[in-house]
Design a protein that fits this description.
The structure is a single chain. This protein is of the alpha/beta class. The chain has a domain of 198 residues: NAD(P)-binding Rossmann-like Domain (Rossmann fold, 3-Layer(aba) Sandwich). Helix content is 35%, strand content 15%. The strands form 4 sheets. Strands 3-2-1-4-5-6-11 form a 7-stranded parallel sheet, sandwiched between helices. Helix 3 runs parallel beside helix 4 and helix 5 packs across helix 7. The chain is globular. The mean pLDDT is 95.
């Protein structure tokens, strides 16, 4: 059966990537979607307003009801588990273990038992500083050394899924540096594009961290920046065109770019000359900072994903001019 032919569950559905995924499902004509999240007191509920879905349930209620009655919400053909605490600065390790590890274990086991396609968000943060490589084709997950508790909480489930023999039946996607519409509620976890846009509107200038490694000049630290529209197409690929693929997959552009390249693209999208200041990186971040990330995407390509990646400048222009300047959400 086509994994998208029945009801779909999206956890984290009000969040950045989750709401973008629902938007893309709506574009394909899918509306029989149950959305789960923790709406709390921030503004991410606004991401849901333009979207079409069948029901909404708070995350703790979903967990509680499924534990009491596994059939409480009926049958799903696909579960996109994107709900997690994604703050790389979160210090409450107990909370991260429960929310990012135990909940994922419970939902994966439930999905497998009920024959639902399970696609979940792992993270590129599991790779740590990259010293052990960022190749998703290696089965030696124990070699990885995440730099923060968020990355470790994601790594814990990847390890569990491998030990339990689940990885050939489920898909874990490792998002690299995703940016795009619907991220404005993420506070300090927003992309540089969103932060820089606001800085430019306020001061005409952008602040970037100085490098604290001699091999990288200021602003030339490198990341694999991925437009959210590409990230969603890759994620949906595992339900549409590769419904039997299993394992961990990097989702990135496959091309590292410097923070300077990204920042100059933001100024260009606004028709302005770059004005950049370099500031010291906070001490709390220095030992946990990734200076280089670049996704190896050969494994993704081997599953038949043949779409071209959106060039960085084009993606930035679409985001800035199509969403940030007019203040629009996806679907508006």
């Amino acid at each position: 059966m086509n994994p998208l032919s029945g009801r779909i569950l999206v956890t984290g559905g009000a969040g950045f990537i989750g709401s973008s995924l629902i938007w893309a499902l709506n574009q394909r004509g899918h509306t029989d979607i149950v959305v789960s999240d923790f709406l709390g007191s921030d503004e991410k509920w606004r991401n849901l307003v333009p979207l079409k879905f069948a029901d909404y349930v708070e995350g703790d209620s979903l967990r509680r009801q499924l534990a009491a009655n596994p059939a409480a919400f009926g049958r799903f053909s696909t579960v996109f588990h994107l709900g997690a605490c994604s703050a790389t600065t979160e210090k409450n390790a107990s909370y991260l273990v429960d929310n990012n590890y135990h909940v994922t274990k419970e939902l994966a086991a439930w999905s497998l038992e009920h024959h639902a396609r399970f696609i979940y968000a792992s993270s590129a943060a599991t790779y740590g500083d990259g010293a052990q490589g960022m190749d998703d084709r290696s089965a030696d997950l124990a070699r990885l050394r995440p730099l923060n508790m968020y990355g470790y909480s994601k790594h814990l489930f990847d390890l569990h899924a491998q030990r339990a023999g689940w990885l050939d039946r489920i898909v874990g996607v490792k998002y690299f540096n995703v940016f795009g519409p619907n991220e404005d509620h993420k506070a300090d976890m927003r992309s540089l594009v969103h932060k820089a846009y606001q800085q430019i509107q306020a001061t005409g200038r952008v602040q970037l961290f100085k490098s604290h490694k001699p091999e990288y000049r200021d602003g030339e630290q490198m990341r694999d920046f991925l437009y959210v529209k590409d990230a969603i197409e890759m994620t949906l690929h595992f339900a549409e065109r590769a419904p039997t693929a299993g394992g961990l997959y990097n989702l990135g552009s496959g091309q590292a770019n410097t923070w300077l390249t990204l920042t100059r693209a933001i100024f260009a999208a606004l028709g302005r000359e770059p004005q950049i200041d370099f500031v010291d990186m906070p001490e709390v971040l220095r030992g946990k900072y990734q200076y280089f990330t670049q996704a190896e995407v050969a494994k993704l390509r081997a599953t038949g994903y043949d779409r071209a990646m959106t060039p960085l400048a084009e993606a930035v222009r679409d985001y800035v001019q199509g969403y940030l300047v007019p203040g629009k959400k996806l679907g508006e």
